[in-house]
Amino acid sequence: MTATEPTVQTGEPMHRQLWFRVLAGLVLGGLVGTMMGPDLGLMDQGIAVQIGEWLALPGRLFLTLLKFIVIPLVISSVMLGICDGNDIRAIRTLGSGLVYFVITTTIAIVIGFTLTGLIEPGSQIDSSQLGAVVKPDIVAPNVGGSSIPATIVAAIPTNLVEHMVKTDMLQVVIAAVIFGLALLKMPNVEGRPIVDLMRATQQVCMTIVMWLMKFAPVVVFGLIANTVITMGFGAISAVSLFFLTVILGLLAMIGVYMVIVSVVGGRNPVTFIRDCRDVMVLAFSTSSSSATMPVTLRTVEEVHKIRPTVGRLVIPLGTTINMDGTAIYQAIAALFIAQAYGIDLTTFQMVSIIVLSIAGSIGTPGIPSAGIPILAAILESQNIPVEGIALILGVDRLLDMSRTVINVVGDMTAAAVLDRLFGHKMEDDPIPDNPA
């Protein structure tokens, strides 16, 4: 078996397939967490929390090792995605990907606004709850105060090592694009050693992914059990209508993806979503699209059969700037908090939230709860009390897990669409021996 051979074998019995074992781990983790958590009160919570920490240890090691390979995998994948295809085609794919992501993010925000306007979950909040709200300790980034030119300049990498240390994924992706395009303009004999190094780097990263995925069921079990032990399901009751609104919004976005996959991508939506199950379960468990990215990249190439020249460009780019699930959450949360405080937003404020949500999603780290600081910035910019975030912090973890699923499905949908539109064109033009 080679290092990149898929772990999911369609001929295997269902109980031996990875997605089933991971799903079983998720269900068992939820059951164990419920039995040990605060909802049933069957054991002392101090002891339960300590046990939960040990149960989550394999998952935290798993995430740490996945994050360890994200930077080299992004750099090698993006550079190879450009070098393995014609430079003009690669630029067209990148540009089309940016336009596609902006469109789907806008659709996501509109869905969030529409559902919140119809359901009005904030109107159900008791005003007495607002008096007990304490302002959360959140540093809000300034997503609306900088000029557009200054924002563009800030996105250009200056010190690659510093960006890698800080996990500034947007700058890392842009640096990889610049290096990849430069390699295409170099004589083949001079650029080939770097290309070979990138191939070896990607192969090493994917080999590590294959090792780690063998432990995925245990990882999912521990992470879910610890989450339920820590917060319990009782945290949902206070803001249940808000929770339901977000879930409905995320499901609606899945429906949008299925239409896009069918109409534009030319694929069977049922088969497509079925083939996404490994990534979806892992994304739900880890709440991190960045940590899930190596598995996402392997899935689009080996399961969805998307051309590597497309997948290696679209998936790292999507992991960096495509956050449709987060955008839905931010739109619903902003309007929910405004409703709770009795604030009627103007049309200009609604448009501003859309623009700021799109801008804030670009470069947002694909890590757990990364959208909370962006939400704080959006609220502050529209004079909506940031203290209102405390109302939703109790369910943020569960919703973070759910919206991460949408984020990664959105990346895979984009890869399928752009593969159909540009994939064959990128492979039609072979790389010349001396492109300079």
Helix content: over 70%
The radius of gyration computed from the alpha-carbon positions, rounded to a whole number of angstroms, is 22 Å
What's the total helix number? 18
- The fraction of residues assigned to DSSP E strands is under 5%
Choose one word for the global shape: globular
Q: What does the model show?
A:
- It is a single chain.
- The chain has 436 residues and is an all-alpha fold.
- 73% of the residues lie in helices and 0% in strands.
- It contains 18 helices and no strands.
- The longest helix is centred in the N-terminal third of the chain and has 39 residues, at 45-83.
- The model is unreliable at 1-10 and 428-436 (pLDDT under 50).
SSE blueprint and pairings:
Elements lengths: L17 H19 L8 H39 L3 H33 L7 H5 L16 H8 L4 H7 L2 H16 L3 H26 L2 H16 L8 H24 L5 H7 L1 H10 L2 H14 L5 H14 L2 H17 L6 H15 L9 H11 L11 H36 L8
Helix pairs in contact: 1-9, 1-12, 2-7, 2-8, 2-9, 2-13, 2-14, 3-10, 3-14, 3-15, 3-16, 3-18, 9-12, 10-11, 10-15, 10-18, 12-13, 12-18, 13-14, 13-18, 14-18, 15-16, 15-17, 15-18, 16-17
Provide key terms for this protein.
436 residues; mainly alpha; 73% helix; globular; disordered N terminus; disordered C terminus
Question: Would you kindly provide a brief summary of this structure?
Answer:
The protein is mostly helical.
